[in-house]
From TrEMBL:
Organism the protein comes from: Levilactobacillus namurensis DSM 19117
Gene3D superfamilies: 2,3-Dihydroxybiphenyl 1,2-Dioxygenase, domain 1
Name listed for the protein in its UniProt record: Lactoylglutathione lyase related lyase
Domain VOC residues, every copy: 5-125
InterPro entries for this protein: Glyas_Bleomycin-R_OHBP_Dase, Glyas_Fos-R_dOase_dom, GlyoxalaseI/FosfomycinResist, VOC_core
An annotated Gene Ontology molecular function: lyase activity
Alphabetized UniProt keyword annotations: Lyase
PROSITE patterns tied to this protein: VOC
Superkingdom classification of source: Bacteria
Length: 127
């Protein structure tokens, strides 16, 4: 089997519209609609789908959990701009900036939480 990419992830959230709006506004991700009105956001070549905890789209994980995700985005902006942008949107920085190692090597990362308490690492590669 030759798997080389990720197509999408699905986050279980309390309020789909709130999550779509937050990811669109804070991270400037385009909103998309698919499969008869489901909503998500585009992230490069991938997407994030949102499902409500009480109306999951089948099939689902065995235990879909609000706030159980932990994932990383890659940013290309200077770190000072990232920090300023997060401050402007009143997004609390949980940790960082910290040196980390991403899939492509050394980076500097900050951690934030979305409205459902999912942990999001925002990494800026050092090269």
């Amino acid at each position: 089997m030759n798997i080389r990419d990720i197509d999408h992830i699905t986050l279980t959230v309390k309020d789909i519209e709130r999550s779509v709006r937050w990811y669109h506004e804070v991270f400037d991700l385009p909103i998309i609609e698919f499969d008869d009105g489901r909503r998500g956001v585009k992230v490069g070549k991938q997407k994030i789908n949102f499902q409500a905890a009480d109306t999951s789209h089948l099939p689902v994980a065995k235990h879909p959990t609000i706030g159980g995700a932990d994932f990383a985005f890659i940013a290309t902006d200077p770190l000072a701009n990232i920090l300023s942008h997060l401050t402007n949107y009143a997004v609390e920085i949980v940790d960082g900036p910290l040196p980390k190692t991403g899939a492509q090597g050394p980076m500097t990362a900050v951690y934030v939480r979305d409205p459902d308490e999912n942990l999001i690492e925002i990494g800026k590669y050092d090269n």
